[in-house]
Amino acid sequence: VQLVESGGGSVQAGGSLRVSCTVSGYSYSRWTSSTSIRYCMGWFRQPPGQEREEVALQQRDGTTRYADAVKGRFTMSQDRTKNTLSLQMNSLNAEDTAIYYCALDPWCNNVVEYWGQGTQVTVS
User: Fold this and answer.
1) Which of 28, 34, 84, 98 makes a 20 to 30 Å CA pair with 11?
2) DSSP 57-102
3) Is the pLDDT of residue 35 over 70?
4) What percent of the chain has pLDDT over 90?
């Protein structure tokens, strides 16, 4: 399984940025016919000198859970036909500076089993 992030970079405070993630090599063999959401994906970030934290994560019921710090500013979207996940980040501020990681939670139980390599977002 590979999760490859793209996008990121540097932006001034108040600006916008979009990061994307492409999933490959994931086996769908564990899906069941009763599962409407076959897997869940999300974004985490790790600010300098801090622990990794959740930014947005799909839930089993199809909704997306956002961290309070990004609600109303960040929007996650997914194109399952292309196995891509994106995070649109608006009104960025210095506290959003971090390495952003794409995450795959195969069972939609809020347990991430696969991670991307991360992409740097710097807000100045």
Assistant:
1) 84
2) EE-TTS-EEE-TTTTTTEEEEEETTTTEEEEEE-S--GGG-EEEEE
3) no
4) 71
